[in-house]
Design brief:
6 helices; transmembrane helix; transmembrane; membrane
């Protein structure tokens, strides 16, 4: 029990430290923006791939899952590495500018810790966001491969999930920007509808 209590205390301490670093550097908005932007990429990419299979009447679920899973992994790795590289450069520059302004070395200060830690945090959020959303969207197709299957069409269910998640991301954006949540959610649905319409048109031609 003492080991569990000690580990829980350690995790809580790390979490509080992370919250402090995010607050000091005002990076909450960056983390939130990365989550939404790359989550949107993941949802729209899954919508496009599944729509393509749906239009072509492709019902080979293992092939669809592999295609979606491959794209989700690629999106996750892209988000992870690109955010780490760009945020490391940004944090180093900000720390350097601050050191120049204060005429002192801040490497061992809280700002120095933040400059080293935040690129990891932001990269993880940026990588996990599209991967997690993609896995949620393809979950009905995966469940359909089980012996009991699904009572509904797995592709249609996955498409509905993608639209729901895109709408919720839009609502979240609306709340952040202070605009009407329904209009903000509707805008992301319009983008999703336009994407699907283009795929249908190209498939028909």
């Amino acid at each position: 029990m003492s080991l569990i209590r000690r580990n829980t205390s350690l995790v809580r301490g790390l979490f509080e430290q992370l919250k402090l670093l995010l607050k000091i550097t005002r990076s909450q908005r960056i983390v939130r923006r990365y989550f939404i932007v790359n989550g949107f990429d993941g949802a729209l990419t899954m919508l496009g791939i599944i729509t393509g299979f749906y239009v072509s009447d492709q019902t080979n679920f293992p092939i669809i899952i592999n295609a979606c899973f491959g794209a989700a992994i690629a999106l996750g790795m892209s988000g992870l590495t690109s955010a780490y590289i760009s945020e490391t450069a940004e944090q180093k520059k900000e720390l350097h500018d601050l050191e120049q302004a204060m005429l002192k070395d801040l490497d061992n200060s809280t700002y120095g810790q933040a400059a080293r830690l935040l690129p990891f945090v932001i990269a993880i959020v940026n990588g996990i966001s599209p991967l997690l959303i993609s896995l949620i969207i393809i979950s009905p197709i995966w469940v359909a491969t089980f012996p009991l299957g699904l009572p509904l069409d797995a592709l249609e269910l996955a498409l509905m999930l993608a639209l729901c998640l895109l709408f919720l991301l839009g609502v979240f954006l609306g709340r952040i920007s202070g605009t009407f949540w329904l209009w903000s959610g509707a805008r992301t649905l319009i983008i999703a509808a336009a994407t699907s319409a283009l795929i249908f048109l190209l498939a028909a031609s």
